C-alpha cells in the first residue's frame, strides 16, 4: 500500500509537539521546532503502508518517525529484502540524509499506525550550524545503531538460525517488550517472513526455528503475538 499525505485538519500544534519529542531535537528551542514544522512534509502510515526512498534520494531528506513503529528495509540483490532496523516513534529513521547515494532503495514500512516527517537536508544542516548538539546526538545515535548492526552481522557469521532467532527476539524484548503474568510479550505482531528478514534467513527456516524454541519452553505464540515464557532458556539458546 502507499502512504497517505497528512490533511489540513491535523493541527500544527500536534506536529510541533511530536517534533519536540524526537530524540535528536530535544535541545532545539520551540521557535525552531515551529519553523521545522512549517518547512517539513508529514505522512500518515497505516499498518503495512510504506514510504519508499529511491537510491538517488538518500541525501535529499531525513526521515523522522514521530509516532508509531516501523521497520526499515533494504532490497538487496535478486529482490531479497533485509530489515535493517525496527524503530519506535521519536527518532531518526535509518541513515537517510547522510549519504549521496546507496545501491538500493529504502523502504519504511509501518508495523502500526505511524506518522513520518520528511526533513529537508538543507534545513537539517542549517539547524546543526546553529545547534551543534543536534549533530552530536545524531552521531551518538548512528554509532549505537552501528554497534547493534555489527552484533547482528556477527550472529550471521557464527550462529545457526534458531540461535539467531533467539537473539533477535531478545533484542525486540529489550526495545518493546511488555511484562505480563505469562512472561514478556511483544506487542507487535511479527510474521515469520518479517523475522526472517531481520536475521538473514527464509520464512521456512524461521518457522522451524520457532518450533524448536517453543519445544524448549522459551517462547509461545498467542493471538499472533510472541510471548517469552522462558527468558533464561532463550538467552542460553541465543548464546549458542
Summarize the structure.
With 240 residues, the chain is an alpha+beta fold. It has helices at residues 12-20, 30-39, 121-130, 132-158, 161-176, 192-199, 203-215, 231-238, and strands at residues 4-5, 41-45, 50-53, 61-67, 69-75, 81-88, 91-92, 106-110, 114-120, 178-180, 183-185, 219-222, 225-228.
Core attributes:
Arc Repressor Mutant, subunit A; 25% strand; 8 helices; 240 residues; four-stranded antiparallel β-sheet; 2 domains; Jelly Rolls; alpha+beta; 42% helix
Task: Give your account of this protein's structure.
The protein is of the alpha+beta class and 240 residues long. It has two domains: 4-148, Jelly Rolls (Sandwich); 159-238, Arc Repressor Mutant, subunit A. Helices cover 42% and strands 25% of the residues. It is built from eight helices and 13 strands. A five-stranded antiparallel beta sheet has the order 1-2-9-4-7. Strand 12 (219-222) and strand 13 form a beta hairpin. Helix 3 crosses helix 4. It is globular.
Amino acid at each position: 500500500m502507499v502512504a497517505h499525505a497528512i490533511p489540513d485538519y491535523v493541527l500544527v500544534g500536534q506536529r510541533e509537539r511530536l517534533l519536540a519529542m524526537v530524540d535528536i531535537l530535544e535541545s532545539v528551542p520551540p521557535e525552531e521546532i515551529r519553523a521545522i514544522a512549517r518547512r517539513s512534509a508529514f505522512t500518515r502510515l497505516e499498518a503495512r503502508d510504506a514510504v519508499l526512498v529511491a537510491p538517488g534520494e538518500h541525501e535529499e531528506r531525513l526521515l523522522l518517525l514521530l509516532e508509531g513503529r516501523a521497520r526499515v528495509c533494504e532490497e538487496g540483490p535478486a529482490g531479497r529484502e533485509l530489515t535493517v532496523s525496527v524503530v519506535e516513534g521519536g527518532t531518526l529513521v535509518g541513515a537517510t540524509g547522510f549519504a549521496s547515494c546507496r545501491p538500493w532503495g529504502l523502504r519504511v514500512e509501518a508495523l502500526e499506525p505511524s506518522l513520518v516527517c520528511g526533513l529537508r537536508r538543507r534545513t537539517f544542516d542549517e539547524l546543526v550550524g546553529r545547534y551543534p548538539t543536534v549533530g552530536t546526538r545524531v552521531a551518538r545515535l548512528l554509532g549505537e545503531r552501528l554497534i547493534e548492526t555489527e552484533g547482528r552481522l556477527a550472529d550471521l557469521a557464527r550462529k545457526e538460525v534458531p540461535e539467531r532467532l533467539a537473539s533477535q527476539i531478545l533484542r525486540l524484548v529489550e526495545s518493546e517488550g511488555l511484562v505480563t503474568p505469562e512472561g514478556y510479550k511483544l506487542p507487535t505482531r511479527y510474521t515469520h517472513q518479517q523475522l526472517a528478514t531481520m536475521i538473514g534467513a527464509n520464512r521456512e527456516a524461521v518457522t522451524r526455528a520457532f518450533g524448536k524454541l517453543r519445544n524448549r519452553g522459551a517462547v509461545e505464540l498467542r493471538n499472533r503475538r510472541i510471548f517469552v515464557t522462558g527468558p533464561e532458556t532463550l538467552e542460553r539458546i541465543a548464546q549458542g
